[in-house]
Specification:
By secondary structure, the protein is α/β, with parallel strands linked by helices. Helices cover 48% and strands 13% of the residues. The longest helix has 46 residues.
Length: 619
């Protein structure tokens, strides 16, 4: 039935094409004749003078009167006038050919171009490539909602409000992702929107950071703001969110007990300390890690988590504190920030609300930065800050007229962000615009799992695909760019005449080989909906450096010896759950794999399982 249906569709298309050709030919001939006659009349009108016109009129009048009186055609024109008219008729007939030929050539050329476009391959559904950027821009501008005030790569208009539906940037290192982000930051700067930027290597910061208006969060930077956790989290639920972002889910086991317990202990103790006059991150960290279990149990005696650190159950309490120490040790780098009198307490939540409600034309930018040399140590803290920023955007009022951008370049260098797919879907209603950059989809899948990674990319409706060097990522990109169904008409030579055989087929819009061979600074951009896929070349711009990427602040590492000793003692404890140890090791392995520049394994080969018998603990 499908084959008969395809043949019927193909025969109908061929019949319609033949009718259109005949109709088009008749139209061109008729219009060409009309143009010739019109040109002839115009030329004659120009050639004949007023006196000649009067003379011709008089001659015709006399000839008509002679005929009516005598009913005889035996009359003659003035010989001079006759020769003049014949001469002018000849000139007009020749001159009129020129505009007629030009018109006919133009119409035939247009018909041929139109026929060549649709004669053989008739796309009936699916995605397709745009002829050029102008075609995409024309379709976007003529769409029901029109175009946004944001353009990608200088010249490609985005559909109206599509920036709120997320942007996904994918490609191998060095292919042009950062250049696209810089072009986007230029647009954001032009319209004056606030933006939160995760900049792992501080690459973007050097070109855009403004010390007068912008804020940086990086525990080892001299520009780091004095972040106050209790200003950001004023309720137990908000402190619970801090714990969830700081202590990620285990990648090695389906048993959530140890992670959930560690989060609960952190939340309870932080809540108990909220009214302390000398509260600080370092004091909280010391209480979690360095004090004896009995003392910690006493501090939590009035909370629901007291039984989790019961001194009579050392395996449970030691294991929970080991999980806490593994991830909260990054907080130790906050030491000394609250002692700087020139730095008032900073709240991410307040900053987001202030910038969203600001009437200033140009808003502040929040930079969450890192450095490869220390990234492993501060990754939980960096992840938590970014999670709190997303949470703050979720708390905004719904608004179609304001935007807050979140740009996460190298997003797979972070720990797993709790429920990221849901956050991406929710914050668009509050004006949140998420831009997520990764080197390969497989890295995202490795951290978040297949279902969550699929949900994340599904909620990022605008995609920009740069070159993927390896076959598996390139194949995934090719599949994601889609395919189309078409009727392809094949001409078959016969003995007496040629026949046309219509065939329905499906083919990829962009093949994986095309993804693997894309030159640098070139990508395929796809918008959600019935917009064509656009191949775009980005123009490289040499930019002026505005500031240094990092100036390290003075940190009193001697003051951290007590904390380091406590961390070492907990992590080296043998009286802990072996299952939990294996889970922590498997999780650490996942994040190490995900940070590689290129994931060498194929999509179906990526599977990290806990190794309960033989593992190597890496601090």
């Amino acid at each position: 039935m499908d084959k008969l249906k395809s043949l019927a569709i193909g025969n109908k298309i061929n019949s319609n094409n033949a009718k259109m050709k005949r109709k088009s030919t008749k139209q061109i001939i008729g219009m060409s004749i009309f143009v010739y006659i019109l040109a002839f009349i115009v030329v004659m009108a120009v050639l004949i003078s007023k006196n000649e016109y009067i003379a011709i009129k008089n001659e015709l009048d006399n000839s008509l009167l002679y005929f009516l009186r005598n009913f005889d055609f035996n009359f003659s024109f003035n010989s001079y006038l006759t020769s003049t008219i014949v001469h002018q008729l000849f000139i007009a007939s020749i001159v009129s050919i020129l505009p007629t030929v030009a018109f006919t050539y133009f119409k035939v050329k247009k018909a041929i171009e139109k026929g060549a476009k649709y004669a053989n391959d008739n796309i009936i559904s699916g995605t397709r490539l745009a002829k050029d950027i102008a075609e995409t821009n024309k379709i976007v501008k003529k769409s029901q909602l029109g175009a946004s005030d944001i353009k990608l790569c200088d010249s490609l208009y985005m559909p109206y409000l599509s920036e709120r539906q997320g942007i996904f940037i994918h490609g191998s290192t060095g292919t042009g992702k950062t250049q696209l982000l810089m072009k986007l930051l230029d647009e954001i700067s032009r319209v004056g929107d606030p933006v939160i930027i995760y900049d792992k290597e501080s690459t973007l910061k050097t070109y855009y950071f403004d010390e007068d208006t912008d804020v940086e969060l990086n525990p080892i930077s001299s520009l780091c703001a004095n972040w106050d956790m209790w200003e950001d989290a004023r309720t137990p639920m908000e402190l619970s969110s801090v714990a969830k972002f700081l202590i990620p889910e285990s990648q090695g086991s389906s048993n959530p007990f140890w992670v959930d317990s560690a989060r609960s202990v952190f939340t309870s103790l932080a809540w108990e300390m909220r009214n302390d006059k000398d509260r600080s991150i370092i004091k909280l960290l010391k209480s979690l890690i360095t004090i004896p279990t009995e003392e910690l149990s006493n501090m939590l005696s009035n909370t629901e988590t007291a039984m989790l650190v019961d001194r009579d159950n050392k395996v449970t309490s030691n294991t929970i504190r080991m999980v806490i120490a593994t991830y909260t040790k990054s907080l130790k780098f906050m030491v000394g920030l609250n002692e700087d009198k020139n730095k008032p307490p900073f709240s991410i939540n307040k900053w987001v609300h202030q910038q969203s409600n600001s009437i200033e034309k140009f808003k502040s930018w929040l930079w969450i930065t890192s450095r490869t040399t220390i990234h492993e140590d501060i990754r939980p803290l960096i992840t938590m800050w970014l999670g709190m920023a997303l949470k703050a955007i979720q708390s905004l009022q719904m608004n179609d007229n304001k935007r807050v951008w979140v740009i996460m370049d190298e997003a797979t260098s972070l720990n797993k962000l709790q429920s990221l797919s849901g956050v991406v879907a929710d914050i668009r209603k509050m004006g949140g615009c998420i831009v997520l950059g990764v080197q390969t989809y497989h890295q995202l899948k490795l951290i978040y799992g297949h279902d969550e990674a699929t949900a994340i990319t599904e909620n990022l409706n605008t995609t920009a695909y740069f070159r993927s060097n390896k076959p598996d990522p390139a194949e995934w990109v090719s599949r994601d760019l889609g395919e189309h169904r078409l009727i392809k008409t094949k001409e078959i030579a016969g003995e007496s005449s040629n026949s046309h055989n219509p065939e329905e087929m499906t083919r990829r819009t962009v093949y994986s080989g095309s993804i693997q061979t894309l030159p640098n600074l070139t990508c395929y951009i796809r918008f959600a909906g019935e917009y064509p896929i656009t191949r775009k070349k980005i123009k490289f711009i040499a930019r002026e450096v505005k500031c240094k990427s990092l100036i390290e602040r003075d940190i009193d590492y001697d003051a951290l010896k007590n904390i380091d000793a406590g961390i070492s003692s907990i992590l080296n404890s043998t009286n802990v759950s072996k299952e939990c140890v294996a889970d922590l090791r498997a999780t650490a392995k996942v994040y190490r794999e995900a940070e590689k520049e290129e994931l060498m394994k194929g999509e179906n080969q990526v599977e990290i399982k806990p190794e309960h018998n033989k593992v190597e603990w890496v601090e």
